[in-house]
Amino acid sequence: MPHDALDWTPPPAGPEQPAQVRRILRLFHPYRGRLAMVVLLVAASSLVAVASPFLLREILDVAIPQGRTGLLSLLALGMIATAVVSNVFGVLQTLISTTVGQRVMHDLRTAVYDRLQGMPLAFFTRTRTGEVQSRIANDIGGMQATVTSTATSLVSNLTSVVATVVAMVALDWRLTAVSLLLLPLFVWIGHRVGDERRKITSQRQRQMAAMSAMVTESLSVSGILLGRTMGRADSLTKAFAAESERLVDLEVRTNMAGRWRMSTIGIVMAAMPALVYWAAGIALKTGGPGISLGTLVAFVSLQQGLFRPTVGLLSTGVQMQTSVALFSRIFEYLDLPREITEPAQPVRLEKIRGDVRFEGVCFSYDATDVTDATDSAGAALSGIDLDVPAGSSLAVVGPTGSGKSTLGYLVARLYDVTSGRVLIDGVDVRDLDFDTLARAVGVVSQETYLFHASVADNLRFAKPDATDEEIRAAAEAAQIHDHIAALPDGYDTVVGERGYRFSGGEKQRLAIARTILRDPPVLIMDEATSALDTRTEHAVQQAIDTLSAGRTTITIAHRLSTVRHADQIVVLDRGRVAERGTHGELLADDGHYAALVRRDAHLTVKV
C-alpha cells in the first residue's frame, strides 16, 4: 500500500488554472444537448431584447413627430412583445441551466462519495471526519451558484454584450467608440479581483473544514461526554469561538476583495450616459453631423443595457476564478488513488464453503517496509502461513500490537497484503468480486457501530429484504430479542447516536444479530467481548457460540477464557507466529501462550 495513501495531506495547488478549467468543462459534457438549448434560448432572448431601442427610436423620430397613431400603437405593442418573449425565454433557460447545474453537483457528490468508499481504512484513521464532510457539503455546496448559473450567465451576458455593441455601432459608431474606451481596463480589474478572491476562498474553505471537524468531534455523544467529564466544555467553546473568529475575518475579506475596484467600474459605467450626452452636444456645437433625439435616447438605452451584461461578465469571471479553488479541493479527493479495487475479471463463487488459508502473508502499513517473508523490519505481519478448514475455529492471541486485528482484516480485505496470499476456498480474496467477498466474510468488532435509526433498520442493513420473522429469529439467536421486545417501541425504537441508548453488551448482541441475518460462512470476531464485564461477556459469548456454529470462525481474543475450545490457537508476537496448537498442547509447551494464560488468570483473580 503506497505510503502517501496512508499519511495523506492535500497536495499542492495542482495543475495550472487552464487545465483545471478544461476539467471543469468536461463535467458538463454529458449535458451538452441541454446546454446547446440554453445557448439558443439565451441568444434568442438577447437578440429580441436589443430590438426594443430601435423600436423606441422609431417612436421618437417618426411615429410621434408625424402623428402616426397606428404606427405608434404597433411599435408600442412590439416593445411589449419583445419584453414578454425575452422574459419567457429567460425563464426557460433558467429552468434548463439550473437542472443541468444540479445534475453536475449530484455527479460530483456521488463521485466523491464513491471514491471515499474505495479508500483503505488507513485513510480514515488519518483524516478527520469533519474534513471529509466539509468537502462534500461545504465545498460542493459552495459551488452551487457557479455550477447552476455560470454557464448561463456567461452565454447570456456575452451574447447581450455582442448584440448590444453591434446595435450601438448601427446607431452611431462615434458614440460607440467613446462608450468602449475604458472596457479593457474593466476587464483587467475584473481579472485581478477574481485572482484575489480565489486565493482567499482556498483559505476560507480550509477554515470551514477545520470548524466542521471540530463540531463533528466535540458535539458527538462521545465528544460531549469527554468534554463534560473532563471539565473542558468552556475550553471547547473558547476554541470554537477562536475558529469562528478566523472564519469571520476570511468571510469579510472574501466579500470585500476588490469591492472598491468593482465599485469604480459601476461608477464609471453609470456616468457613461452623461459622457454620451456631452459628446453629442460637443459634436452639434462644433458643427459636426447632428444626432437625432431618437437615436440619442435609443443609444443611451442600449448603453444602459450594456452596463448590466458587462458587469455580469466581469462578475462571472470573478466567480469562476473563485470556484476554481473549490473545484481544486474536490479534485484532490477525486484524484486519490484507489487501494482496494475489484479485478478486471473478478471471480464469483455461488457456493462458499469457508476454507481460509494464509500463504506467506506479509503486511505493512508502509509498503516500502516489507517486500517478502524474510524482511520483517517495520512489518505488521510477516511470514504468516495458516490453514483454517471450513467450519473450524481459529483463535488468534498475543500482546497488544502483535498484528491480531490486522490478520482478521486481511481476510475481509479491509487491507490488501503486501506480499503472499489470503485465500477463501482456494481463491485469492483480491480476485473475488466484492459481492462474493461481502457474502463470504462477516466481521463483529469490539467497536460496534449503529446508525441513528430504528433497531429494525439497523438489523436490515445486513439484509435489506429481511422479513420481520427473520429479524426476530436473528435477535433471538443473539439473545437480544427479549430486551428489544420490552422497549416501548420494540423493534421501531431509535437506537440514538452511535447506539448510546444501549449498553455495550446490548450493542454487541445487536451486531451479532445483524451478522446472523447476513449469514456469512466465514466469521471474524475481533475482540468482541474484551470490553465487557464477566456477566455480560457470558451472555454475549452464548450469542457468539450460536453465531459460530457451523461457520469458519477466526477469533481475535483478548480474554483467553473465550478461546479455550478453539480447534487451533495461534500466538502472534511482533507480527510473526510464535506458537500454534490446541489449548492443552500450548499449555504443555509452557511458552508464550502459557505465560498469557497465567497473566490472564492473575488479572481475573485480582479483579
TrEMBL record:
A molecular function (GO) term: ATP binding
Main location: membrane
Keyword Metal-binding on entry: no
Domain ABC transporter residues, every copy: 356-599
Pfam family, one: ABC_tran
Domain ABC transmembrane type-1: residue ranges: 36-322
Subcellular location per the Swiss-Prot or TrEMBL entry: Cell membrane
InterPro entries named in the record: AAA+_ATPase, ABC1_TM_dom, ABC1_TM_sf, ABC_transporter-like_ATP-bd, ABC_transporter-like_CS, P-loop_NTPase, Type_1_exporter
Membrane-crossing segments per the record: 35-57, 69-96, 161-187, 260-280
Topology term for the membrane: Multi-pass membrane protein
Keyword terms: ATP-binding, Membrane, Nucleotide-binding, Transmembrane, Transmembrane helix
Protein name, per record: ABC transporter ATP-binding protein
